[in-house]
Amino acid sequence: MGTSYFEDKLREVLITEEQIREKVAELGAQITKDYEGKELVIVGILRGSLVFAADLMRQINLPLVLDTMVVASYGMSTKSSGIVKINKDLETDITGKHVLIVEDIVDTGLTLSYLMKNLESREAASVKICTFLDKPERREKDVAVTYRGFEIPNEFVVGYGLDFNQHYRNYPEVAVLKPEAYEQG
Ligand code: IMP
Ligand code: MG
Asked: How big is the CA angle at 145 (ends 142 and 146), to the nearest 5 degrees?
């Protein structure tokens, strides 16, 4: 995509809109197959997974319920604090339900390892993870990721829901910003 606002800020596009569209369709088809005959509860982790969850759920051909959680782990910096706080919990009772956590990115793994334990303790029938991006180099805690869109190198990326200081979520591809843009916020 080439709007001048974004072009000024971007160093490099890592994943294009077309690659994203194909991958999301693949993931949706796989999930549809794996959960055949079951009902799903999709748990979108806000705000980062909003764009991915919206696209993914429309590729899943199953009865499903959508819920969201807001968790904070990063604050205003590009470094993880290691602290996970639930700012908005589920409204759905997931006891006996098949839960699929939909996340934008697994980085250190701290957020998802915490969430996984938290949701499992509510006696769901199953809890699995679908992440759009995976940055395995930075992993500190092991998390079992069942569905993964793309593996990316250790770079801070924005777009397709991912932010830097709450901006760039509306960029439709996955990109790395110019160093100046990270300094300015
Ligand atoms: P983790 O707990 O370190 O795995 O962090 C996961 C969260 O950190 C994600 O849900 C994102 O909100 C944020 N995050 C990690 N890496 C990036 C990135 O490259 N760009 C934008 N947000 C990121
Ligand atoms: Mg997030």
From this structure: 150
Q: Which two tokens stand for residue 162?
A: 């991912």
pLDDT (tens digit per residue) in 21-71: 999 999 999 999 999 999 999 999 999 999 999 999 999 999 999 999 999
Kindly name the residue from 55, 89, 93, 107 that is annotated as catalytic.
107
User: Which tokens is 95 given?
Assistant: 């006891």
CB of residue 107 inside a 6 A radius of ligand 1? yes
For the beta carbon of residue 80, count every other beta carbon within 10 angstroms. Answer: 17
Q: Does any ligand 1 atom lie closer than 6 A to the CB of residue 106?
A: yes
Name residue 98's amino acid. H
CATH number for the domain that contains residue 144: 3.40.50.2020
Dihedral angle at the C-alpha atoms of 71, 75, 80, 85, nearest 10 degrees? -30
Domain assignment present for 166: no
Structural domain of residue 129, as residue ranges?
20-156
- Note if 107 is an active site residue: yes
